[in-house]
Structure formats: structure tokens, C-alpha cells
Amino acid sequence: MGTERPALPHETDRLFLTDGGTETWLIHKRGHELPNFSAFHLLRDPEATEDVRSYYRAFANIAIEHDTGFIFDSLTYRASRDWGDLLGYSSSALTDANLQALELYRDIAEEVGMAPHDVVISGCIGPKGDAYERNDELTAEGAQEYHQAQIDTFKSADADIVTALTLGSSREAIGIVRAARTAGVPSVISFTVRSDQCLASGETLREAIETVDQATDSAAAYFMINCSHPDDFGPALADEEWVTRVRGVRANSSSEEQCTLVEMDGLDEGDPDELAGQHARLKAMYPHINVFGGCCGTDFTHVEKISSALQGASSQ
What we know:
The protein has helices at residues 22-28, 46-66, 81-86, 91-112, 140-156, 170-183, 205-216, 230-233, 258-263, 272-285, 300-314, and strands spanning 16-18, 69-73, 119-125, 161-167, 187-191, 222-228, 246-251, 291-294. Helix 6 (170-183) links the parallel strand 4 (161-167) and strand 5 (187-191). The chain has 316 residues and is of the alpha/beta class. It has a single domain (16-314), classed as TIM Barrel.
């Protein structure tokens, strides 16, 4: 693929797509068991790995068709120390799993013929504990110590950026931003907003973003929202300066509570056309937002419709 570095979303107005609800798709559409919601564990199985490859190829081809950038967010959401321990991974085996995941995306990008400037390789980080519960014992210092090893691995693998998904507190976000700064790699912080427009910590989205920026000298490249539906996170946004720090959304397919979507027997795919329309209206209100993907219940069908709606709205 060469050594050309892509422009990152906060460095350009270009539209970027990313993937959807990887774990829910693998569970409900391909029948894979994900112990502790750990998709990276599937890379030990060649047949399961091919399902992962086909999933990301579909998204990459949408990006090619729509002439957008594409962010390969690695399936390493659970590939950190505590979760790895639960799965029986040694420290070295966990490092190898993170490296393998990032290399997978470079292979896929080359396979489908993506130009280097269209490809952003993102090392994905999940929270230390349960994403939907308060973790008041975790300090910013503890979070930095915990996440540093995984972020250092992403840096060694030459990731373009690290993205922390489904965070529920500013404290953990601060630790991740500091760890990324120490490693010398740009960081993205994505918070989950509940139906009361607050994080699990009780902070509003504005409070969380401003707290992280104040504690880190605005070191995060940008912020996102994920694992929430537009009905829930939409009212948390406002025509105010702090919202310019939000550059991306990865919405759930349904407005059901997040923990319900993860645990339900079937897959609630919502209405992809309605979701796409909501994204087009969001883009019209906040044109600086330029990263779009999906979360629980979504797949390439939703992201293709979202991209079409965004581009259709921009051409009017």
C-alpha cells in the first residue's frame, strides 16, 4: 500500500465511513459465539476470520463506490488486559492478537484496491469495565496505566489513530488521551449517551468533552458518539462551540436501551431508511461532522443508506 499517510477526519472536511455493529452482526447474522463480547477471539479460527474479512470488504467497497475515506476500526474492543485474562490470553498472546487485527485491515484494503489516502487504520479500544455501568473506582491515572500497553502496541503497528469506543466517563477518557499522547499517536474519544442525554457517569456530553479537553490541553484529535440512537444523542447536541469537537457518530439501529440490544435473542435492525434520514438531518445541522458508521444492530446495509442519504443531501 505504500507509505502515504491519509488525512485524518479532523484535518479535512472529507466524508469518512466506518463499519457497523460488528459484534451483533457476527452473533446474529453468522452465528458466532463471542465470549465476553470479544470479536478479536475469532481470528484464531480461519472460517470465522473469513466471515470477518467478508464483513469489512463490504464496507470498504461502499467507501470505494461512494468515493469516501474509510476508517478500519479494529475488532480489538475487548483485546485489553482484563478481558484478555478472562479469555486465557497471556500478555504476549494479547499483543499478537492486536497486531494481527491491524494487519488484517491492511490486507483487506489492498485486496479491494483502496488507495492509501482513503485508508485510516484505527486501533480500537474498549472500556476497562462494563460500558453501561458506572465505574467510579477507575481514576484517570488508573485508566492511563491500564490502556497504555494496548495503545503502545497500536503505535508499534503504525496505526494512524486510536479510537476508544463506548466510554461512560471523562475519567477513563482522560487516561486514554494521556496514554495516546505518551505513545505519540492521535486519539479519538467516543462517548455513549443514554436516553437521559447523560453518560453512565451522570455527566452531560458537554461536561465530559470539556472536562477531557481541560485535563489534556485538548490533546484528543476529536470526539464521537456511539452505541446510542439519534433520538437519544440528538438532544444532547447544541449549536455551541463545544460541539465542533464532535466529528463522528456511530448510531445504534434502534432506540432500545444499549444493554437490551446487546443481550436480546434476535437482532433489532430498526428502519435503515429512517436512520439514514436522521443522519442526513444531523449533517445539515452540524456540517462539520464527517465520520459516520453504525453500532449495535447495524451493518453495511445501514451504512450504505446513510452514505447515500448524506451525499444526496449535500448535492441539493
